[in-house]
Amino acid sequence: MTVNRLLKRQLKKCGIDSLESIDPKKLESFLKLVEASYEENEKSIRMLDRSLEIASEEMREALERNREQSMRMVQQSRLASMGEMVSMIAHQWRQPLNAISLTASDLKLKILMGKSDDNSLVGGLEKIVGYVHHLSETVEDFRTFFKSGKNRTETSFKEIVESLKGIIETSLKNSSIKVVYNLDGNARFNSYPNEIKQVVLNLVKNAQDVLIERGVENPRIEIVARYDGRRHYLEVRDNGGGIDPSILGHIFDPGFSTKEKDGTGIGLYMSKIIIEEHCGGKLKAENSEEGALFTIEL
Predict the structure, then answer these.
(1) Cα–Cα distance between 193 and 198 in angstroms, integer?
(2) Average pLDDT in the 57-64 region?
(3) Domain range for residue 227?
(4) Which of 164, 177, 263, 276 is the most exposed place for a label (fewest CB within 10 A)?
(5) How far apart are CA 33 and CA 22, in angstroms?
């Protein structure tokens, strides 16, 4: 029916009122009109095909440009990640290297003063070997940090802190900073203990730097491990006066540092990434009555 109506309209344009009596001249006019419409449609179709061809070519070129740009971005990202990884490793090596240096200096002094014995030498060397092993673990941890499919290991906050006591206490030895441990129980969980160790050392080093910079009397760092039946908590608190509220919300930002010298802004940022994105926990900072309080929650 629709076709008939369209046909009748076209016929009327040519002066044909009825299909029963068609004037040959008018029919010729009608056929010319149909031919012109056909040619016009053909032209439109060719133009549309050409437009689609051009659009398709432009799309292919755009996709190729995007692919090349993506490859460049991936390469730049890899280079940036490598640079960041080196910075992270250097940051994590400071405390163990400092502990090795202090232990070696202590052994050398005892030997020069004639106060060394086999037990002290063996003990000191065992400490150094342990610190070197920790350095090796650090490199391996960062090498595999972004790999998927790593297996979690059963551990506890108490176990993690106990394994770090040697490094922590040796690093704080010349700072007159007292370390208090309150490791409640030994509740177990599955995670990445070596990477959590890096975070704990970062938090302790951060507290140490603040206490030294501010010249706090009777400086103290307290490490608390607890379990509430559902979640595991590790707290690192100090009596350094706390964090300026104006920067409290930015201390985990990449590159942010409150230190005028030697501040890379990597430590706390990296700690946040490890705990929240890798271990599936939370790391938060707040002020307590005496100073800063950092809490790891798993």
Answers:
(1) 9
(2) 76
(3) 152-298
(4) 263
(5) 15
